[in-house]
Amino acid sequence: MFVASYLGSCAASMAGYCACWTCSTVTRETMRRSARLAYSFLFFLAILISWAGRDLAKPLIEKIPWIMRAATGFEPSDKWFGQQAVYRISMGSFLFFGTMSLALLGVRTKGDKRGAYLHQGNWAAKLAAWLVFIALPFFFPNGLVVAYGWAARFGSGLFLIIQMLILVDFTAAWNESWVAAGEDDDRWLYALLGLTVASYAGVLAIAGLLFAFFKPGGAGSCGLNVFLITFSLLLCVAFSMLSVLPCSRGGSLFPSAITSLYVMYLCYSALQSEPKDYACNGLAHRINAASGSTLVIGMLVTLLSVVYSALRAGSNSQLFTLADDNDDIAATSAGRPLLDAEAVGDSADGAAPAAVSASRAPGADATAALDDYTPVSYNYSFFHLIFALASMYIAMLMTGWGAVEQEKDRVDVGWTSVWVKTGAEWVTALLYSWTLVAPVLFPERFA
What family is this (predicted)? Predict the structure, then answer.
């Protein structure tokens, strides 16, 4: 009986060890093959810590004297404690990704050891460094954190602008791709037409829902909400008409339809950020009656959308090309001779460099040497810069852009958020309109 028990215990321990070893191996392999997903996980973890810190960090911060010195002369509220926690955690995430961005400047080929060891490898050391960066701002003086809060407003605006640029370029590239495919198969053109009609139908449906939710009966005229919804629709009509005019070179209704859909989404996002005690925010009144799980799901969806936006923006290191999702793309066979020829041409004495000479050796050594000249599939430094800016955006999202009316059970609420999103909506419409008229105004630059 004792022997059986002992053997069972050993078997259970061995099974646990094997399970842990397997999980760690799979995790390391996943991180090695897709570094972007691993960094996205760290970023999302920072978001969750910020979320928890905003609501639960008061007992901890009360015990930190250099932070509490900033509260002399007034009685700090729960929102003040939450803001302190969010700013410092966001600052730690910003410093981590900002440091990575600086360290990876100039990495253009896979032969650069910084890409292999710093960006894609050594995850245990990077996780430890990330934890240090997250904790470090809690030792910073309050003045530095306040300065970061103001800098985060500008960094967040830059993050939103990059999102807009990528959206405008993505829709144009999508349209060109399907139109080109439609030259050989008309079904691509019919699909493009169907998506265009569906997008405009979605615009009208969103507008109808916005009038229903944000101009509820018995709430008065709700002039501000009516203006924002109506003006958004007029913007959609204006740049849609502009896109089909003869003066708009390369204009098309499909990019206009997708941009219109995004503009109306921004209008909705701005209106739902109105404080819940505002009479014209009928959606907030419905949310108040929702269950706690519904609120949590809504917040998680918001945060996941930010993670996805940062991931896509970081992967689009060139704003006017579509990103490739594979971290380990090999160079094309056509590209390798070009790299080899360039290296030979750059040699001062006409002889091939050592690396290229090695590439002519048979077997695996030749492949490894050529891989040293394989371009990376995206700009590592730019990728981390986007996540640094997204860390700033999270600080604004959690604190309602630093406003005092941020609500505990919601994120991105307050009049500051309303006007920031409204401004983002108008800038999106302006940027898209500019892409239509710029080739006409400056033909030599868009030839």
Answer: Belongs to the TDE1 family.
Residue 306's CB is within 10 A of a number of other CB atoms, namely 20
Residues 86-107: tens digit of each pLDDT: 999 999 999 999 999 999 888 8
Cα(179)–Cα(191) distance, rounded to whole angstroms? 10
Residue 142 has pLDDT above 60, yes or no: yes
CA angle 38, 40, 43 (to 5 degrees): 115
Phi, psi of 15 (to 5 degrees): -65, -40
Distance, CA of 303 to CA of 307 (rounded, Å): 6
DSSP annotation of 103 reads H
For residue 267, give both structure tokens. 């209008």
Give exposure, 359-372, as e/b (b: 16+ Cβ within 10 Å): beeeeeeeeebbeb
Write phi, then psi, for 400 (nearest 5 degrees): 60, 40
Give strand ranges (E) for 281-358.
none
Are the CB atoms for 390 and 398 separated by under 8 Å? no
Q: Where are the domains of the chain?
A: 35-330+374-441
Pairwise CA distance, residues 447 & 440, whole Å: 10
Other Cβ atoms less than 10 A from the Cβ of 226: the count is: 15
3-state helix, strand, coil split of the chain in percent (to 5) is: 75, 0, 25
**Rounded Cα–Cα distance for residues 285 and 277 (Å):** 8
Q: What's the pTM value of the predicted model, to 2 decimals?
A: 0.72
**Could you tell me which residues are beta bridge partners of residue 109?**
375
